[in-house]
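INPUT
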Amino acid sequence: MVELDDVRVTFPNRGGRAGGRRNRVVALDGVSLSVERGECVGIVGESGCGKSTLVRTIVGLQKADSGQVKIEGRPLDRHDDRSRKRRLQLVFQDPYSALNPAMKVGSVLGELLVVHKLVPRNAIRARCCELLDAVGLSADYLDVYPQALSGGQRQRVSIARALALQPDILLADEVVSALDVSIQADILNLLIRLRRELELTVMFISHDLAVVRQLCERVLVMHRGKIVESGSVDGVFADPQDAYTRTLLASIPRVAFHAGPGS
Amino acid sequence: MTSVTDGELQPQPLAAGDGGIDAAPDGAIRRRRSAKLIVGLGILCVYVIMAVLAPVVAPYNPLAQQIPDALAHPSLHHLLGTDQLGRDVLSRIIYGARVDLVAATAASVGACMVGTLIGLLTGYAGGWLDVALTRVMDMVQTIPSFTLLLVLLLVLGPGARSLVIALIVTHWVVYARLIRGSVLTLRSQDFISAAWLAGLRVPRILLRHLLPNVGRQAVTYLASDIILAVTAIASLGYLGIGIQPPTAEWGSMINDGQDFLSSNWWLSVAPGVVVVLLGLGLALVSDSFNERKDRL
Amino acid sequence: MPRHEGVRWRPGTDSQGADPLLRVRNLSVTLPTRRGDIKAVDGVSFDVLAGSALGLVGESGSGKSILLRSILGLLPGEARVSGEIYLEGQELNALAPKQRAMSRGKAISVIFQDPMTALNPVRRVGAQIAEGPLVHYSLRRSAARARAVELLSEVGIKDAAEVARRYPHELSGGMRQRALIAMALACDPKIILCDEPTTALDVTLQKKIIELLKKLCLDRGVALLFVSHDLAVISELCDFVNVMYAGQFVETGLVSQVIANPRHMYTWALLRSLPPVDGPRVAPLSIGGLPPDRLHPPSGCRFHPRCPVAQPRCTALPYNLKDVGQGRRSACIFGDAALPVPQEESGVAR
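OUTPUT
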């Protein structure tokens, strides 16, 4: 479904300390990957590893210097028409900038339905209610502005917006990183359920390996613009091959004892 | 006891997930804000009524000359006296609203629309379009605005319509820069990327997503711009360009009254006060509008 | 249950006799808002023993950051504080603002969350660290600078002298956080308050900072009051933990005991919502319901609307943080023994 072939992305080097050698920063250094239909793949790395650039390149917000990005077999074209754009949707990291403060939730969802002519006009509100229901929000939320919502609720609305276009592929860019741990659990469970019900292909980007472990079957570890390890989640956790992966795994704070039933 | 799911919207004054607690404006502050708005709107209403209902409200025809009654002091017949040609000052002020208010509002609103549109386009598009238009803005602003106005009026000829066009051409740049700045900031927000990713086209993104968020600044500036426009029209009237006599216009009235400052000082002062009060009304409204929106 | 090597306190050892370094009694903080007054902190009492690390865990809005700031005296002007805070026996709220300011930075210091904004961007790092000793100990400038360099190398920065001459934007995120820690140590504080200092950091960096804090705590004997929403981080770093919900403590005790054997349903739910790193891939538990309404909190136990085993009496019984043995306290009616947690729905949720 999603294929990257030796993609390279660089940025001009801005600021930083005097004496910087290169005048371009390499964000993606020859990244190749492929995601099959129905898979859930996690992409893990710390800040600066290039995962945000990777996401932006896949959706077309960033142009690659070289290499190819193919979505469902066809190369990505920034000037794709609407129907192509629908296949791939992205949920953003920051719940506080992901929603237009001047639009009510109902308008956000309704607009997409209208523009893409997905449902007849008189069915728009009903479909919006369905979308909110799918993400666990009641119909009352249609008439509120984003300012009245908490971070977790905003992320749900973002997910609903992404789902409104009935995409085949969902990219989740650090969608739980800005949330409290227990709200993270809510959103994670929501994604697990949605993936199952809608048969989505999911690419889940995160810096948190533990979270990726919950959701994904396969994981790619990124470091400094390269993919340093890839494999099944269980495999990578049990037997990490790359030194960086081992460091990453060792750094996860562990609770001394995971609470189970009873004492 | 099973818990209420997150899905049910409970009356929640505060979503604890935010941790956002803002200090409360107490009742006194809120009353002050409403007072501002009411007074400001009241003043503006008076002006609008003056303009709209001039034939009804004005006691005399503003153009009717009664030379024998020239330079009369304020009396029951002529509440503000008469000018040097015997025309009733009060009526001229009332009719003047039609000219000044309308022309100034048209010019400012026009400049606002033109400037906002250009600002949206150039801020969002970036690239060569942005560079080109910014240079244009620089050029227009480099020329002293009054000179530019004069030149334009020379070319377009005298009269209200040319005045409005000339004012639009000189005033749009400020709006464009304001809006462009806001758009540049907002452009990196995720919801704009989301709109693009969802297949929305540029006009819709500009008008439906960007404009509601940046437009407030333009509207705030509009209020003060109207006064600037009134001043410009009045100045031009004062200089004898712009609105031609015998049309009643506050600026030319101030000019005409100059010669009589020692004896009939109200001939200049009255229209001056009228201009100032209009500015006050606009400022009050735009201030309270600004404050109320801030609370969101 | 094995714990990290940092633990020095065990119940029944020499901790009994010592006077606590920091005593907080019945602290309440009320914040007026547009819609009414919110009791951000509602009658909390706790002690911090010298040289120990106490973790405060709770979610956004639970009041933990406000609690920290009230100890420092850094609340917004309209906040109303009641209760007593004793530092080394001296009541802080009774001090005049100037004396309070003197105690800040000297006996108490603080590490804030965001290393980007906590440092002054227009001053060199060394100068910022040196400022404290300069003011509080009236050192000569050169002595203060030398001390700054010493501190920078103590927190693990190589080429400390060179780094001290740099500006904050010239340092990496990790170095900035270390510089902040150096700044906090500058005046030899007895206790360092930490407001989520690792939340904004990458996980590898977080681990390094936690290790650093542990080492400093042991080497220097400085106490830590560590606020976080991440129970895992607290379990790695702290000896004791207080769990906070809706402005109140719901459970307190040794970290190892609280985590192995929670005595409040909220603690259990928090633990259960963490995605497990080892062991079977169980889906994390969502704590259902909404965060509590801070204007009109639920009656009785504030957690009862979201508690899977809530009883009718939970809505009526007043808040009571009682002793449940082994130096632990819990506000739950089930706190005396093992919690009656619901059966797990499934092993591997997939």
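end of record. The longest helix of chain A spans residues 181-198.
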